[in-house]
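Contributing new records

If you add data, match the layout below exactly. Sequence lines come first and carry their own label; structure lines follow with theirs. Keep one chain per record. Anything else will be rejected by the validation script.
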Amino acid sequence: MARKTAKEVVTEKAAAKSRTKKSGAKATPGPLVQLIALKVKLYSRKSIWRTLQFRGDQTLDDLHIAIFEVFDRFDPHLYEFQFGKKPMDRNAVRYVDPMINDDPFGFGNDDDAPSADQAILASLGLFVGQKFFYWFDFGDSWWHEIEVVSIAPELAEGEYPKLLKSAGESPPQYPDEDEEDDDDSDED
């Protein structure tokens, strides 16, 4: 069975909905939107993960913000998404933090990678089972593996993204921070 892209799934459902309207059957009320569920794992500790659901019209920047929040981060840093076989794949398609493209000094984006705030999830050709990577904080290098869990046109109720499931406690953003706090208390 061939994998279907997000766009193909939505197109098929829209065609089925159109046939339903023509046949006189009752159509589903309200707007159907593409909902995409993504499982985000810490690359170094895959037992720590979060499953998030997004509307297809949201962006990779929205995904970044959600990951930042659900992994209890507090200090913003640059980030990028990589669509390749592994982290730092030389052939990966990259989407970068919008601040990299706005760098007036030209230090950030040397290959004109597209901005994450312009990358709409439904337009990325995602398919169920696909994996891609998120790199947060280029100094401390927090790597995440993201797997597409489901793509379906559904009624979108409430605000998105939504946290669907989670496992494991988020590690501190700066792992040595707790040790430094302990050292400071010894000086009293």
